[in-house]
Automatic annotation (TrEMBL), chain A:
Keywords: Membrane, Transmembrane, Transmembrane helix. This is Uncharacterized protein. The chain crosses the membrane at residues 37-59, 71-90, 117-139, 159-184. It comes from the Bacteria.
UniProtKB/TrEMBL annotation, chain B:
The lineage of its organism: Bacteria, Pseudomonadati, Bacteroidota, Flavobacteriia, Flavobacteriales. NCBIfam families: sigma70-ECF. Keywords: Sigma factor, Transcription, Transcription regulation. The keyword Transcription regulation applies. Residues 108-158 form the RNA polymerase sigma factor 70 region 4 type domain. InterPro entries: RNA_pol_sigma-70-like, RNA_pol_sigma-70_dom, RNA_pol_sigma70_r2, RNA_pol_sigma70_r4_t2, RNA_pol_sigma_r2, RNA_pol_sigma_r3/r4-like, WH-like_DNA-bd_sf. GO terms for biological process: DNA-templated transcription initiation. Residues 12-80 form the RNA polymerase sigma-70 region domain. It comes from Hyunsoonleella flava. Belongs to the sigma-70 factor family. ECF subfamily. Pfam families: Sigma70_r2 (PF04542), Sigma70_r4_2 (PF08281). GO terms for molecular function: DNA binding; sigma factor activity. Signal peptide: none annotated. This is Sigma-70 family RNA polymerase sigma factor.
Length: 204, 164
């Protein structure tokens, strides 16, 4: 192929055409901060991970006006071991990411890290959703004079309406969060996913 | 930070810096992007350097980290609009070897390469650097057979772009 030969010739003789950076210039570069995708994923993931923790810790403080049943509290504390397990997994995955792996393994490891955080987010959303829905219902019944009074005074239709409204608000809220989350990583990982698909395609 | 380590790294990089320039040449098409990618590759190399054992050649190791950064890790800068294009400006051949048609063809070649996807660019890079299929397969994480198939397809694609 003629043109490729020409390119090859130019390539082999191109050494003198590139700028020559001095020792000092290179030294300054290694002091600068990376802006790699892994770093961004790491920062965003840390925010996500801490969000779960903050939510779990803050939970009791906004409940003080309304009395929730004990099982709901126990339920919320169950979150901690799971969150810590996710943090452990995330750290383990993150440590595995190395620029010296081959391209495919590197991409796999980055995507695996993302997957862990995605499961974590799903866990938080499902858990948070259940908690939010149950807590809203209990709060509402207490405002109406307690569950017993509420049961007595409320017609079946109102009962159903209250539950539907709570479910709707919960799903809407979770949907918006998941949408933002999806968009965020969609943009960040678009190129990586495309390149990974390109390498995977070869094996099919 | 270990200054001895810093010193040996910067010295080696200064000597082999053209490898990074060459990766940047294929993956970017203006000065700013070239410099951005150069810097990111340098940082990634430096981060990985403590694990460099010296059993591989420094240059071979650079190929891998450099390409990984360009394909996988690097987030393209948004500052690319309104910057000067490479084509026809940078890397002019020296006067004594200057050939108008050759220069024109090279410009077209680089333009065509920039239309390839990131994996195809990596293949072109490894081809231009005379890497054999074993090394290409190890760098990208695909089999040698697939590397060969993909290389041929990439060359065909390049040819098609040029013939358009």
């Amino acid at each position: 192929m003629d043109r490729l030969d020409l390119l090859k010739k130019d390539w082999d003789n191109s050494d003198s055409k590139y700028p020559k950076l001095s020792y000092d210039e290179i030294y300054k570069m290694i002091l600068k901060k990376s802006s790699s995708i892994v770093k961004w994923i790491f920062i965003i993931s840390l925010i996500e991970l801490s969000l779960g923790l903050i939510l779990a810790i803050l939970n009791p403080s906004f409940e003080h006006k309304i009395e929730y049943p004990k099982w709901l509290d126990t339920f919320s504390y169950l979150m901690f071991p799971v969150i810590f397990y996710f943090i452990y997994l995330f750290h383990k995955n993150y440590k595995k990411i190395s620029a010296t792996d081959n391209a495919k393994v590197l991409m796999q490891n980055i995507l695996r890290t993302r997957k862990t955080v995605r499961y974590y987010i799903l866990f938080n959303l499902i858990f948070g959703g259940i908690f939010f829905a149950v807590a809203s219902f209990i709060a509402y019944t207490q405002l109406e004079g307690g569950i017993a009074a509420f049961n007595e005074a409320t017609s079946t239709t109102k009962y159903v309406v209250v539950i539907i409204v709570i479910l709707f608000v919960t799903i809407l809220f979770l949907g918006i969060i998941y949408g933002i989350y999806y968009l965020l990583y969609g943009i960040l990982l678009k190129r990586l996913k495309r390149n990974y698909a390109e390498l995977k395609k070869l094996e099919d | 930070m270990n200054t001895e380590l810093e010193h040996s790294f910067v010295e080696l990089l200064e000597k082999h810096q053209n490898i990074i320039h060459k990766v940047c040449r294929l993956y970017t098409n203006n000065y700013d992007a070239h410099n951005d990618l150069f810097q990111e590759i340098t940082i990634q190399l430096w981060k990985a350097y403590p694990k460099f054992r010296g059993d591989a050649k420094f240059s071979t190791w650079m190929y891998r980290v450099g390409l990984n950064t360009a394909i996988t890790l690097y987030r393209k800068s948004k500052r690319r609009v309104n910057t000067q294009d490479f084509e026809g400006v940078a890397f002019k051949m020296k006067a004594d070897e200057y050939d108008d048609t050759e220069e024109e063809q090279l410009k077209l070649m680089y333009k065509a390469i920039h239309q390839l996807n990131d994996i195809e660019k990596a293949l072109v890079f490894l081809y231009l650097e005379d890497k054999d299929y074993r090394e290409i397969s190890e760098t990208l994480g695909i089999s040698e057979v697939n590397a060969r198939v993909k290389m041929n397809r990439t060359k065909t694609k390049l040819r098609n772009i040029l013939n358009q």
